[in-house]
Inverse folding.
């Protein structure tokens, strides 16, 4: 990619809402001065390159004034100089809302949302300790949330929603004391939300659609939530045991009743005669009922054919 080679001093790169596809080129990591990378709404696939730690402006604290300024020095005549200074602003999207940042020099952001990125988040992202905003939502990332995400101490915005992350929310996330926007919804996270002043102050929607999560702000505690993979007390396991005993008892009852009936009929002559007489009467009743129904049906057919002949 020529951008990483010819525009090595690039600070703000926004390619949002295009039709770019394929993978993120490794040449992009050559932009060591990059402060804002915005690839929002494209069809970029594959994994995030691990060389993101080459973004020096995001990885190290610099003493330079963080204002993106473009100084143009244009010599009009040999005696007159005109100096122009241009300060732009960024329009970034977080949690579905657009937010304007008038001072780009104070913002260090990566927005790769609404693409088709896969795999796990590379560990090298942990080295971007000056990063202010990270949006990886609406992709196909898997695995667990970064183990050392707490190293991103300057992070104010974190959106990892609508991916395929699993596991628990790491306690290191509670170390992000500047965090003001958090979205971990629509994933497969489980267990208790780490206790911290920051995480418990977020809205319920920040953790929604994670069926295994518990604790504030989702629920007061985790006493009513069983660990995944283990049956709850009085739940499925008890139900299976009950059904096994139910069918066993029903089978034994049928066997005992049948054997008792056969024994009585076999050993008691009067009962045996009564039983056989009952069977003969039942057989005769069924036979007579069938013959009567058959005769009635034949009469109706004949009557119907006779009426049709007369009408003709």
């Amino acid at each position: 990619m020529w951008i990483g080679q010819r525009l090595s001093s690039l600070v703000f790169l926004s390619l949002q809402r295009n039709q770019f596809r394929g993978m993120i080129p490794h040449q992009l990591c050559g932009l060591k001065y990059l402060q804002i990378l915005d690839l929002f709404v494209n069809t970029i696939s594959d994994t995030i390159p691990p060389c993101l730690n080459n973004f020096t402006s995001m990885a190290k604290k610099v003493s330079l004034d963080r204002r993106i300024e473009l100084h143009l020095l244009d010599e009009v005549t040999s005696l007159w100089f005109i100096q122009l200074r241009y300060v732009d602003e960024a329009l970034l999207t977080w949690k579905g809302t657009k937010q304007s940042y008038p001072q780009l020099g104070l913002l260090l952001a990566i927005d790769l949302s609404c693409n088709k990125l896969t795999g796990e988040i590379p560990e090298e992202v942990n080295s971007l300790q000056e990063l202010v905003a990270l949006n990886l939502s609406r992709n196909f990332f898997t695995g667990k949330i970064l183990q050392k995400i707490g190293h991103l101490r300057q992070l104010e915005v974190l959106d990892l929603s609508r991916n395929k992350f699993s596991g628990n929310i790491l306690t290191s996330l509670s170390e992000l004391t500047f965090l003001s926007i958090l979205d971990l919804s629509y994933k497969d996270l489980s267990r208790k939300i780490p206790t911290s002043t920051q995480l418990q102050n977020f809205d319920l929607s920040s953790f929604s659609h994670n069926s295994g999560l518990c604790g504030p702000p989702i629920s007061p505690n985790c006493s009513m939530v069983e660990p995944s993979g283990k049956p709850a007390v009085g739940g499925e396991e008890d139900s299976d045991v009950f059904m096994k005993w139910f069918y066993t008892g029903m089978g034994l009852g049928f066997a005992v009743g049948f054997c008792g009936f056969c024994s009585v009929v076999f050993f008691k002559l009067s009962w045996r005669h009564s039983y056989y007489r009952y069977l003969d009467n039942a057989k005769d009743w069924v036979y007579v009922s069938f013959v009567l129904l058959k005769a009635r049906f034949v009469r109706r057919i004949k009557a119907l054919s006779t009426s049709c002949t007369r009408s003709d």
Helices lie at 3-6, 56-59, 236-267, 269-311. Residues 134 and 279 are 84 Å apart (CA to CA). The longest helix spans residues 269-311. Residues 236-311 form one domain.
